[in-house]
Amino acid sequence: MKSKLTCLLICVILIGCNNKNSVSFEPLTIATDSCENCTSVRIEIPQATGKTKLSKTINNALEGEIIALLNFYEESNAQNLEEAKETFLNDYKEVNGKFSEESMPWEATVEGSITFENESIITIKLESYIYTGGAHGYGTNRFLNFDKLNGVELYQENLFTDLEEFKTFAETLFRKQENIPAEGSINNTGFMFETERFYLPDNMGYTENGLLLYYESYEIASFADGPIILTVPYAKANAFLKYPNKF
């Protein structure tokens, strides 16, 4: 009897350990009512379920990122996605009240998807398009990386064993991809890196094809050039990663 109880306890412990870094999702949609020539907001993201630290971290990070995306002014009092949606609508009404002859309906769409997951890491991409007047809107992708075991969000400095070494390596790949001479300024072919030195984007994430470095439009090139993307295959990136991907 004692041995059976011991085996049962071990099984429970093992199950708990195996589930510690697991996470499930359900779709979450927040949107305005359909209306022709009206300001619109549509948010479609995966929402982590359960009450684990990881689920809370993921949901808080996604919420914070989207609130920032929908924020027209420098500061927002929105505490959740519903409030962020209403704030975006109210900001439009305020601007439209001042410039009604020039104001076009605004638009905000945000779609979230899981681009990568293994036993250690999960990466979620937020693809957004925001229009708040002017000649064109602004679209971008944001990558959020999470440590599944510890339930924390990972920032650039958390991803690498030696950030400077990876930067040097990434510059070599970048120059090769963009046909920039190995010697001389990184801006020799028309890029606009500040101080004429290569630097990594803040926005990077795990994908099935490798570690993706995503430079926003305007970040290192003109808007017409769009975002600049460099994907480093794991066969090359793993040597620098704190969370290498087995393949």
Please tell me about this protein's structure:
The chain has six helices and nine strands, in the order αββααββββααβββα. It is an alpha+beta fold. It has two domains: 22-154, Heat Shock Protein 90, CATH 3.30.565; 156-240, Heat-shock cognate protein, ATPase (Actin, Chain A, domain 4, Alpha-Beta Complex), CATH 3.90.640.20. The protein has a six-stranded mixed beta sheet.
A few lines on this structure:
By secondary structure, the chain is an alpha+beta fold. It has helices spanning 2-20, 53-69, 81-98, 156-159, 163-177, 234-237; strands spanning 25-31, 40-48, 107-117, 121-131, 138-147, 152-154, 204-207, 210-215, 228-232.
Layout of helices and strands, plus pairs?
Elements: H1 2-20, E1 25-31, E2 40-48, H2 53-69, H3 81-98, E3 107-117, E4 121-131, E5 138-147, E6 152-154, H4 156-159, H5 163-177, E7 204-207, E8 210-215, E9 228-232, H6 234-237
Parallel strand pairs: 2-3
Antiparallel strand pairs: 1-2, 3-4, 4-5, 5-6, 7-8, 8-9
CATH superfamily of the largest domain: Fervidobacterium nodosum Rt17-B1 like
Structural class by secondary-structure content = alpha+beta
What's the gyration radius in Å? 22 Å
Q: Can you tell me the CATH topology of the largest domain? A: Heat Shock Protein 90
Tell me, briefly, the overall form.
flat
Secondary-structure element series: HEEHHEEEEHHEEEH
Number of helices: 6
Helix content: 25-40%
Low-confidence stretches: 1-18
Strand order of the largest sheet: 1-2-3-4-5-6
Q: Tell me the total number of β-strands.
A: 9
